[in-house]
Amino acid sequence: MIPGISARRRFKDLSEQEILALAISNEEDDARIYRQYAERLRADYPASARVFDGMAEEEDSHRRKLIDLYKARFGEVIPLIRREHVAGAYARRPVWLVENLGLDAIRAEAHAMEAQAEAFYRKAAARTTDAATRKLLGDLAAAEARHQHAAEELEAQHLPAETRSEEDLAAHRQFVLTWVQPGLAGLMDGSVSTLAPIFATAFATQDTHTTFLVGAAASIGAGISMGFTEAASDDGVLSGRGSPLKRGIASGLMTALGGMGHALPYLIADFWTATFIAFAVVFIELWAIVWIQNRYMQTPFLRATFQVVLGGALVFAAGVLIGGG
Fold it and tell me: Is pTM, for the whole model, over 0.90?
């Protein structure tokens, strides 16, 4: 390949044979993706898994029809041409990126896959002047549109409203256990536990640079500690809390973020300006904790407010008193 020259072919330069081969390749890839989604969901969301099994079968049936048409027109040998070989072709995100986002993201990705395929073929058909190619592309666009309707029919068959509601509730609970709960614990630990050392240092030294270094060290150290502790404390198999790696990441990052929030203002050279901004950040952090507890953990708002604000105020006061003394 000549440097600076793309190896990808333009769609308008493809022959009808290559367009049909590309369509066959697309159907094969999408069927595999749907089967991977089905396997990923089967244990926890069997109804949704059946929907994706059905969508994979739909893709297989269209692939067989395309292959029969290809053989009738061009023979037995199908050239290898894939989406990544064609400039401007719609791309599929790696399956592992979508799998880790949860049930709703997988459903949305599947609907987007069908819509992207239909739009691609319709735009391609509108750009061509060759009647036979235009008809072929139009037929492919119609096939993709039927895929979307077939997916909706499969959802209606295998995923009635009651079942979908149950699966959505299970997905929400899993999200809370894997991400929200350890993240909230980390945010509380990082926000509250670092108040005393940061503000004690601030009032003892009135040196913003030193205060920032202490705050950064306390926050990052706490984040690393919380992350490893969360990951090592429970493998998630019996508790159902999900991947220890994900929980460790959520806990560690939120712990570090909670502490760095009121350490960063001390990058400002003026002590009182930095301190007043840090006060404001602490206020925002504590109310964010209250909101998360109320929104995801169903903790009554007044109880969450009392626990978080009182606890934070006591730790903050301890830091100020120790530093001021």
Answer: no
